[in-house]
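forwarding from the other thread:

> can someone predict this with 6-phosphogluconic acid?

sure thing
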Amino acid sequence: MIRVYADLEALSHAAAGLFAAEARQAVQARGRFVAALAGGSTPRRTYELLGQEPFREMVPWQNAHIFWGDERCVPGEDPWSNARMARQTLLDHVPVPPEQVHPMVCNCAPREAAEEYEAFLRGFFATGRPQFDLVLLGLGENGHTASLFPGTSVLEEQQRWVADVYLAEEGQHRLTLTAVAINQATLIVFLVSGYGKASILWKVLEDAQDPGSIPALLIKPADGKLLWLVDRNAARLLQP
Ligand code: 6PG
């Protein structure tokens, strides 16, 4: 399902409204709302909107559990940190209990950090499946999502829920939920905005090649829903 919005502002309002609706529905049905946040720049405005009226009051923050889809292995206050961005834009402005916010911490060896986060997730999801109620994702111009990058071995991962990735082009490690974990979610939402994303969005949605070259193609919910919230600039190459 693809929804096209006039611009990033309209897309962000829709995403904030969807986040709030999913949160309320999950809490009503299961007593809690478990979300994995995306990093990068596109979701910033969505997070800002969720941290202020009217959206802030729409979300049952007391019952929310916040995870991340990926994180760069940098100190918590590093401008590159996805958790820092989410704190500044959202989490410092809403009453989610601190013990229910679970950043990916990578201050030890990346492999150990990935294993620790996975162990926590396996304890948190007693069913044995990482059934996030909502996973937010972005899309990189090279087709990556979370930290599932083209040509990395994590794309073949079939068992682990969390993996460590070394990105030579960035000279840094990252932690990421694997496609195996993401695909167990009840709802997966891509947020894609901007002229520069039109080509990759077309390749993903209308010219699907092998996931090895376009990792976002690995994202296929096992029994949940997949939604694309895109703006007009990003959608300009799509069939009307
Ligand atoms: C990250 C993100 C990454 C991001 C895409 C798109 O940590 O970098 O999780 O997957 O979503 O790179 O980033 P933009 O939204 O900045 O275009």
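The longest strand covers residues 225-231. thats all i got for now
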